[in-house]
Write a structure and sequence with these properties.
Number of strands: 16
Strand content: over 45%
Order of helices and strands: EEEEEEEEEEEEEEEE
Largest sheet: 10 strands, parallel
Radius of gyration: 14 Å
Number of helices: 0
Length: about 130
Amino acid sequence: MMFTRKAQPAIRTLVGEGTVLRGTLQFDGGLRIDGEVFGDVLAEPGSRSLVVISEKARVHGKVNAGHVIINGEVRGPVTSSEMLELQPRATVTGDVRYEVLEMHPGAMIDGELKPLKSGEKPALKLAASNDA
């Protein structure tokens, strides 16, 4: 199976470092979180979406988007309808649902991993190790 990447939506929304947001964050297109969110992070249904949760970021609530990249901490369920990337410093405490999963060494999940299409074999992509 060949993995190809589509052009990602531009990041037009930023929750900056030191910012604390309380409540549901609903977005369209691209979102980057460097701060802390106490509430759900939800992409507009049916939209092409990208959310980046940086290594400094903390989300206390569910995350639901097309392409999800995590290098920080999420305490809640994560659903990615296109691709989920768990980078080396990612920590997820909650169940994870995905279409395609890319997980780097060091990423941690405390929850259940389930593909969105439970009747099919999940599409997994092994992240290349930098230890050559």
